[in-house]
Automatic annotation (TrEMBL):
This is FAD/NAD(P)-binding protein. It comes from Streptomyces microflavus. Residues 8-188 form the FAD-dependent urate hydroxylase HpyO/Asp monooxygenase CreE-like FAD/NAD(P)-binding domain. InterPro entries: FAD/NAD-bd_sf, HpyO/CreE_NAD-binding, L-asp_N-monooxygenase_NS-form.
């Protein structure tokens, strides 16, 4: 019989680090001085994990400003455990400069820290140092009875009956770890190739072509993409931005005063997507004046009512109309309070009529048209989502110029506080995300829309994209991109709806996106064993977890007493393991609930002598 209960945490990137921080915060209240062994399993360094590991290119940036990144709770987070304050990334950098903190970082990273301001977009390797410091601080805060063991390897299976210890098999260890409780925080998943991707890879192999399927850009071998040749890129989000940086500056090119100086080693990137435009730029100013209003429509009571309805939810029918109305409320509240000279109705009258109008109704549209004279000041979510719908250009060159103008307009607006209603919508999106997590699996459209509007690249990245377009290194394909494998000619062919009749042929195709977070197609043997062992999975392949404490749910609807899971592969997926300060941090709330449930379970095992062999 073990002298202490054993907890195994699989995955120790920022999500696993957040769980350890919450265990440390809650241990004295819920666990006292009892002994506990915690085993952390991750092949990558604890703190940053795979995505935020220190050994990656300095060209790979975060897509958040340093002042918008924290790993610590504050009073805006709804949690049962204690708030434990800690510095946001920019404040941590100030502590490093003042000598109050000594991070574990290479000299080049220390030099970056010394120059970091709150409005900078740090490199991911700098964020790795912050995450590692957070992890070390969490370990130091654990009570003396809790011992931590790190295993730099991969967990390949979790087995065991519901009522006794679990067996965690590791790749390079014959004997499994015996765990009284297991927490999975494995982050984004590797995926087996979907049927379309497998067919494209087979086609490429037959014809000596290059096909790079969905993957993490930092882990993709890009050396096979030849200089000077066309490469079709499908995907215009953050994975494309990483790809763009690595294939241009990463091959010796330089950006100088808004002009790109090629090295001659770059391929020519022909990029398109469903929308045909890049994600919207991160907003480049901070909130001032009256605080944004609390959610009016997306309330806990609204979520409770939706969850009480029989049958599955339809996102577009049951959820999206009120999300749109909530975002409109945020937008117009800011417009009327911060820019009243651009409105034409008493704000209280507008507010009352807006509240009474049905979402998407003609009455609501008429109200907005009469109260907000300039169409540029009105919130049109459909136009934001699909700016190229119904738009065509007569030539490929006209499209290049049109997209450069679009990027310029987006950069101008997203960096001008005269349009601060856009920032209000961004904050409204964060609030909406926090409520929508409670609804479980609502499909992928919402997560894609959120990322497109709220989690886009830094402004400087779009400036670089525009310069690369002018230099001819990036070429835009437009919206509704389709890729064809031409067996007769042995090439990939891509075309879009924005320039009818135009197409590009290439011997290389890159899928610039992450693998889908589906357990049905995961390449992870660990998660496959959970799926094959009876864990419930939604129609889109997400692992079902109890919304209260993140216990894994089986196909009979029973939460597993000894297995927890948190992260983007679960039905409680959210916008990130870290967040902006003072925005509620739903991941922090989940971490706290899971940590408290785990500590309570392990305490009862220890106190009642029910440790099983």
């Amino acid at each position: 019989m073990s002298a202490a209960p054993t907890l195994v945490v699989i995955g120790c990137g920022p999500r696993g680090t957040g769980v350890i921080e919450r265990i440390a915060a809650n241990a004295r209240e819920l666990y006292g001085d009892l002994p506990l062994d915690i085993h952390l399993v991750d092949p990558y360094p604890a703190g940053g994990g795979r995505i935020w590991r220190p050994d990656q290119s300095p060209l790979l940036w975060m897509n958040s400003m340093a002042e918008d990144v924290t790993m610590f709770t504050d009073e805006t987070v709804e949690l049962a455990g204690p708030v434990v304050a800690g510095p946001a990334l920019h404040a941590w950098a100030e502590d490093v400069r003042a000598g109050r903190v000594t991070p574990d970082a290479e000299p080049a990273v220390l030099a970056e820290i010394r120059g970091l301001t709150g409005q900078d977009f740090p490199s991911r390797r700098l964020q790795s140092a912050y995450l590692r410091w957070t992890y070390d601080r969490a370990l130091a805060a654990l009570p003396p009875g809790i011992t931590v063991h790190e295993h730099r390897t991969t967990a390949i299976a979790v087995t065991g009956p519901r009522g006794s210890r679990q067996r965690v098999r590791l790749r390079d260890r014959a004997e499994p770890l015996l765990a009284d409780l297991v927490v999975l925080t494995v982050g984004h998943l590797d995926a087996e190739q979907e049927p379309e991707q497998a067919e494209l890879s087979d086609f490429a192999a037959r014809h000596g072509l290059i096909h790079l399927p969905p993957d993490f850009t930092a882990d993709t071998d890009l050396t096979a993409l030849p200089a000077g040749e066309p490469v079709i890129v499908r995907g215009f989000g953050l994975a494309f931005i990483d790809l763009m940086a690595l294939l241009t500056e990463g091959r010796g090119g330089r950006h100088e005063n808004g002009v790109y100086r090629p090295s001659g080693q770059e391929p020519v990137l022909y990029v398109g997507s469903r929308r045909g435009v890049p994600y919207h730029s991160k907003i480049g100013y901070t909130w001032t004046g009256e605080r944004p209003p609390p959610p009016r429509y997306l309330t806990p009571a609204w979520a409770d009512e939706l969850l009480s309805r029989p049958g599955p939810l339809d996102f577009r029918r049951d959820v999206w109309p009120l999300v749109g109305k909530e975002l409109g409320h945020a937008h117009y509240h800011r417009l009327f309070t911060a820019h009243p000279e651009r409105t034409a109705l008493d704000p209280e009258v507008f507010d009352a009529k807006y509240a009474a109008a049905d979402p998407g109704s003609p009455e609501l549209a008429d109200l907005v048209a009469g109260a907000v004279p300039d169409p540029a000041d009105r919130l049109d979510l459909d136009a934001l989502d699909r700016p190229l719908d119904g738009v065509t250009y007569e030539s490929a060159e006209a499209l290049q110029e049109g997209l450069r103008d679009y990027i310029t307009a987006d950069l101008t607006r997203r960096h001008n506080p005269d349009h601060s209603a856009d920032l209000a919508v961004f904050l409204g999106l964060l609030s909406a995300y926090a409520q929508l997590i409670r609804l479980g699996d609502i499909g992928n459209w919402w997560h894609g829309f959120f990322s497109y509007l709220a989690s886009g690249p830094p402004g400087p990245r779009l400036e670089q994209l525009r310069a690369l377009s002018r230099a001819g290194v990036v070429r835009f394909l437009g919206a509704s991109i389709a890729v064809e494998a031409d067996e007769e000619h042995g090439v990939f062919r891509a075309s879009g709806a924005t320039v009818p009749g135009e197409h590009i042929e290439a011997r290389a195709l890159v899928e610039a996106r992450l693998p889908d977070p589906s357990l049905r197609h995961t390449a992870s043997p660990l998660l496959r064993t959970l799926y094959e062992g009876g864990a419930a999975v939604t129609d889109t392949g997400l692992l079902s977890v109890d919304p209260g404490d993140s216990r894994i749910v089986d196909r009979e609807g029973r939460p597993h007493p000894r297995r927890f899971a948190l992260g983007p592969f679960t039905t409680a997926r959210n916008s990130g393991a870290f967040t902006r300060p003072r925005t509620g941090g739903p991941a922090f709330r989940q971490n706290d609930a899971a940590a408290r449930a785990a500590l309570g379970f392990l305490r009862d095992l220890s106190c009642h002598g029910r440790l099983a062999s």
